[in-house]
Amino acid sequence: MSSNYKLNQAGLVEFIHKLPTPAILVSKNFENSFEILSLNTAFEKSFKCLERELLGENPVDLFDACFENRLNEGFVDIECMAKLKDGEEVPTYVKISKIDTESEEGLKLILVQDASREYELERELERLHTQSESIFEHRPDFNYTINREGYMTSVNLVGEKLLKYSKSEMLRMHYTEFIHEADIYTTQQKFKKVLESKVVQFEIKLCTKYGEKIIVYITAIPILDGGEVVGVYGNARDITKDREIENQLQESEQRYRSLFENNVDAVVTFDLDGNFAFMNSATEKLMGYSSEELLGRPFLPHIVSEYKEFTLNEFSKALKGKAIQYETAMYNKKKEIVDLHITVIPIILDSQVVGIHCIGKDITMQKNIEKRLSDMAYRDYLTGLPNQYAFQGHVEALVKGDRSFAILMIDLDRFKSVNDSWGHEVGDQLLKAVSERLLKYIPHNADLFRYGGDEYIISFESKSKGEIHHFVTMIQNLFKNSFIVNGIEISISSSIGVSLCPEDGSDIDTLLKKSDNALYFSKRHGRNHFTLYQDVADEIDNQLLKTELLLKNALQKEELFLAYQPQIDISDYSVYGVEALLRWENEEIGLVPPSHFIPIAEDSGLIIEIGKWVIETACRQLADWKDLRVRDVKMSVNVSTYQFYHIDFIPHLQETIRTTGIDPSQLVLEITESIASNAGTVIDQLKKLKEMKVKVSIDDFGTGYSSLKYLKDFPIDHLKIDKSFVQEIGEDEKSEDIVSSIITLARNLGFQTIAEGAETEQHIQFLKNQKCDLVQGYYFSKPLYSKTFKCWLSNWNI
Hints:
elongated, Beta-Lactamase, Rev_trsase/Diguanyl_cyclase, 798 residues, hydrolase, alpha+beta, cyclic-guanylate-specific phosphodiesterase activity, Nucleotide_cyclase, 5-stranded antiparallel sheet, 29 helices, EAL_dom
C-alpha cells in the first residue's frame, strides 16, 4: 500500500471488524514495542481467543521468531507459525502492512491466512487500498502530501477547486508557491518541525492561481517509513468565510459598544421582566447608582408614581416587538425628579423578542423651561395680573356658559409721555399702581386682565345695560385722582371701548375687534372717555370703511414705505442685518400706526397685496445694497398669518427671489407664535422655505405658549424675544428669568436668539452675559430710511 494514502483510525478499526479474514491492528507504544490495538471476530475464531484478552499485548507472542524479526519492516509477506490459545502451532501466511493515519504513527495491519487463501488476502488489501484512496480524494478539506524537499506529491479534488490549479500543475510546484508572502517564513518554520516528527497546526493565507487570498487552518502530520520522516501529510480547512464573519461580528460589536459606551445619553438593556441587564456609564451618572446597585433589579420602582402605569404600558408595547418613543420621569438616587425622553427598541432574535434596548435622554432642563414659560405665559410678569392668553380662556368659558357680559378694553392716554419724561421704571410702577387701583374697586362679577403694554381688559358679567353703563363710568372715574409713583405725582386718563355679548357677537375675535374699534373711536374723539360699540357702531363702521378705502389707494399713491432697523451681533458688534418695518402716512389722516391699519388690511384681504409689496420692496432693496459694507446684511420681513397660508405665498416668494437675484439665505421671514395653531401646515410650509434656503424667525417669542410643544419640530433659525421682556431687564427679575429661559431653550434646540427693544447699556450687558446672539433696538438705532441706513452703516464703528 502506498504511504500516500491514509485511513482514519476509527474507520480502519470498523473496517477490519467487517473483514472475513483474521486481522490485527497494532502500533508502537512509548517503549518502542508493539501492542495490539484491535482484532476482528475472524481472528478470535481462528485463534480461539477474545479481543479483550489480547488488547495491549505484544503481537509477537502470537507468532514465532520469524514474525518478530520482520515486524519492523514496512510491507512484508511471510510464512510463520501461529500459536493458538491451547498451545497448538499452526502454519500461517501473514501479510504485514504499514498504515499511517492523521493522528497515529507506526500502525501495522496484520492479516493472517493459510496459503490456500492468499489470493483472497490480496483482494482484501486491494479493497483497503481503494478505500484509502477514496477517503483521501473526497474528504471535504484540501488534503495533500509533500516530500521532504517541499514539493507536492499528491493533492485531492478539493485542492484543485480551492486553488484553481490543475492536479498536474500542482504536482510540479513547491508548497511555498501557494502561500501568501507574509506567511511564508512562518510556514517554513512549521515545515521544519514536521520533518522533526512533530504534528503542527497553524493558520495562514494561501493564494489561488488568480491571486485571490484564502485563509486556511493547516494540520500537518509527518509520514513515517521505518521510523524515518519521508514526507508530510497535510489537511487544509478553508476558514475564509469563518474569519470574515468573525471580523464582521467583531466590527459590529465594536460599533455597538462604541454607540453604547460612548453615548452621552443613558443606554440600558432590560430583560423581558424589565430588570436591568446592562447599562453604560451615562446611565450610572444620570441615575446616581452604580451598575452593581441596578443590575438584575427592576426599573419600575424608579419611575415617578403618576407615570408608572403609563410607562409600564409603553414598555409592554416594546415586548410585542414595537419600537416606540415616549416621555416619562424617574427619581435619581438623591430622590430628585429627572424628566426623560425614552426610545425603546425590542431586541429580536429568530423572530422572538429576547430583551429591550432603551435610550433615555435627560430633558429636565427643557421641561423646567417649558414649565416656567407655561407658568408665566398666563400671568403678566409685571403686574401679576392674568394676561391676554388667560383672558381668551376666560371668555371662552363665559361664552360656553351662555353668560351675558361686557368687555372693556382700557388704554392709558399718553402713557408714552410718562416713559419719555421719567423713564421706563416710573412707567412700570405706574402700571402696577393702576392695576392695584382697578383690582381694589372692581366687583366680584368682574375680572381684570393686562392685555399688553398700557392696555387692560375687564370682563363684567351683567344682563343689564344700565348696570354695565354704571360700571364703565365707575372705572373711568378711578382715573380722576392722580397716582403717586416714586414720589412723583402723575395724572393720567383712560380711554375705554366696550363690546357686549351676545349683542355685539358671541366669539372672542368679534368681541375684541369691536371693543378695540370702540377704543380707537374714543381716542380719535378726544380721549378720556368711553365708547360702547353699539352706541356708535355706524360711525365706527364708516370710519373703518373710510380707512380701508384710503388703504386700498395707499399702494397706488406710494403712501406705504419701509423703514430699516439694524440688528447687531452682540459678540463683536458687527451688523448682522435689518428688519424691514412697514409704515403708512396718509395726507388726510397722517401717520397711521401698524397696530391700527394691519388688522384692517387683514380683515379686508388687502394684506395679501400689501404683503407681496413688502417682500418685493425688501428684496429689491437687498439687491440694491451691493457695496462692500452692505452686501452680507440679512433682511428680515414680517409675514402675516393670512399671507403665510395663502396659496400664492411660496410661488410669489420664489419668483421675487428669482427676478431680484438676491441670495435667498440673506432673507429672513418673521412669523408669530400663533401660527403654530395649525402645526401640520406650518411645518410643510417651513420645509419648503428651508429647501429654498430662506431663513425663518419666530417673532415676539415668549408672549404665547401654544407653540412650545411644536417648537422642536419646526425647521427654524431664530427665536425673537418680545421687546416687552427685554425692556424690563434690570427692573424686574421675572422678566430677566423669562429672557434667560428663552435663550437657554433656543441654545438647546440649536436656534439663534434675537432680542428686540434694547434701549439701555444695562439691557445690552445682560443680554451679552446671557449669550444672546443678536440685538436690535434704540440703543443702536431707531428704524431708518434706506439712504439713512446706508449712511448710518458707513459710520458704524465696530
